Amino acid sequence: MDLLESLKAAMASVDAYYKDRGIFQGKFGFGASPALIVIDMAYGWTDPAYAAGSKRLDSAIAAIQKLLPAARAKKVPVYFTTSPYQDNPPKKSASDFSPKFRKWDRRACEIDDRVQPLSDECILYKQHASAFAGTPLTGYLLRDRIDTLLITGCSTSACVRATATDAKSNFLRPIIVREGVQDRSEICHEWTLFDIQARFADVVSLEETLNYLAHLPQNR
Fold this sequence. Notes:
alpha/beta, 40% helix
């Protein structure tokens, strides 16, 4: 049995335990007023030329390319995150722990052209895993009376997870679009989706999300 098959067996065992005890695995469901967030789909993560870049993110790019026009057609607010470019990063930054990780040029912090924001869409520059930490995201969502956050981007086991848990802490409905998120590690990706579905967010298919967006009223 390979590692992925072992993981699936472990997840099945945990799933059975949860069901036997009647714990976790609840559903938030879609709300009436969503926003879409695209986490860290900048070249530093999407382009394998960079140390942190991975071709595995291509599948998430393809899903986000379908979500963006569907969200924009219903005037759903769209937010993007990336890291701020720093010529001289502060001491005790990520570069201290992973020296190659932050050896970027300005392009590494630019959103990939395949999912480029429109001129009136917000780009949040963050220095922590969660899109909420140290950014004005909470204020924007309150201003727009958002109750549901559709979450896409990378990486599943870090920034996506942190954003989803903070969305829950802010009394939002966190909805992770399965095809719209990805990780450098398939194992981390699959385990995180399983674990976060049980306790912190809904993990739903791209098809279900597109159907939800298609049926949103134009004037909410």
